[in-house]
Structure prediction request, 559 residues.
Amino acid sequence: MISIQGKGVSTGIAAGPLYFFRRADLTVRDFKVEDRDAEWQRFKAAQAKAIEQLGELAEKARKEAGDEAAMLFETHQMMAEDLDYEEAIENGIREEGRNAESVVSDTGEQFAAMFAAMDDPYFQARSADVKDVSGRIVSILLGVVQGGIDSDVPVVLTADDLAPSETVQLDKSKILGFITSGGSGSSHTAILARTMGIPAVIGVGDQVKKEYEGREVIVDGGTGNIVVEPDEAARQTLMAKKEQLRKRQAMLEQLKGKPNVSKDGQSVRVYCNIGNPEDVHTVLENDGGGVGLFRSEFLYLECDDYPTEDYQFEAYKKVLTDMGDKEVVIRTLDIGADKQIGYFNLPKEENPAMGNRALRICLNRPEIFRTQLRALYRASAYGHLCIMFPMVTSVWEVREAKKLCEQVKKELTKEGIPYAEDVQLGIMIETPAAAVMSDRLAKEVDFFSCGTNDLTQYTLACDRQNNDLGRFFNPHHPAVLRLLKMVADNAHKNGIWVGICGELGADLTLTETFLSIGIDELSVSPRSVLPLRQKIREADVRQCREQILADLACDQTQI
Prediction:
């Protein structure tokens, strides 16, 4: 038995085989083959598999986002078996005697360049499609595992850390838990684990050895303890704890349908953070009061090119329709920093967390922003939509974003396309500048939502992705809490509501603090809804408000 200690970031017990995440190596080598017929058949097998995969993706897209979304994959299917494309590949293999992956890669580049040079915008757009098709076939030829997991059974997945673009591709039905050597409590791997409600441990360094792969592991996402090949005593102890957690969850289930009201009568809305339309069922299953943060950038991360207006519209429409009359706050595109997307061709930055990201990209590239805003306003006719702009620092940014919203509404009106007239516009408070300017910003918007992960990062000058900073990254720091109180005060003075959508919202040690400073809404991972509701219902804010407000108002001697 081997015991490993990391940092638990998503509670629960998971047991299963250990599996190392397979990161794609798409290096293509060009060489001569001896058996040209066999190489051609190897291509044909990969082509058939690609067409099968695209068919499955088309059906999945149709169920989740409608026919427009499915059409993209159906177009790729047709390209994969295009006769001219196939003939060019056959010539490269049979006539030149080259290996299949090299020929497919070169043919894809040639056809992409040919489409890009055409005058017709439709055919220009096919350039990216043919690259994607060729890349898929090359991946199959190279034996690259789609989604990073090649296992017939669910596994405990381990990696150094996972980028947002990688988490999007994971086959989540095969994941029992996460272990990462690096990362932090606010990394996307940790956030994904909490959304999925599965155990996760980060910061194990090099303690998980490659030779452990396939062995049984038990992960405790609460304590951060990992046991490889547990003995019977360890297994019984951890399985007993798992049963205790199951019983606690069953007890929490009784809170479904109950109001989020403290003993002294203070009410707060409890909403959920999600990353894609599929997460809505988890929100409803856990009795979330609404969606306080839909991270729309994940629609962009899962695409190989800019998602079309119709593609986005179908996704937003599905979320709003499935949520019924419950409020849905959709955050506009928030990429940059740790969320990089290749087709945006963003320049490499020395300090991307403070660079061209989020609303800055949208205002600098309004054609991308307008496409998203049109999709959002079109979808607003199907539910209770709120639009939220991230990474705000100045009043002028908000005014410019609002101006684009007005232009989009005028366009839709002129085109006879319906949209809701009561869409609320809000901003994320995640920079100290926005917090300090919240008195003026409150006059421009309908609501604030505090992104405490980035607010902590920028206030304390601590990289949220750097787990080595340890105690220096302290979301409980008085400076962070004081800013939150300032924001809440300025929101209420101007008649708007204020929420928290960062990971801090689920921190039960701060629930009474948030109630004391007047937070109106807490948006958390779906699995955190019922524990948070229990904490709210047990709280008597009258007994602690005065002391909490006094602590935030006076000098602090302990950090």
Q: What stands out?
A: The longest strand covers residues 13-20. The chain has 21 helices and 16 strands.
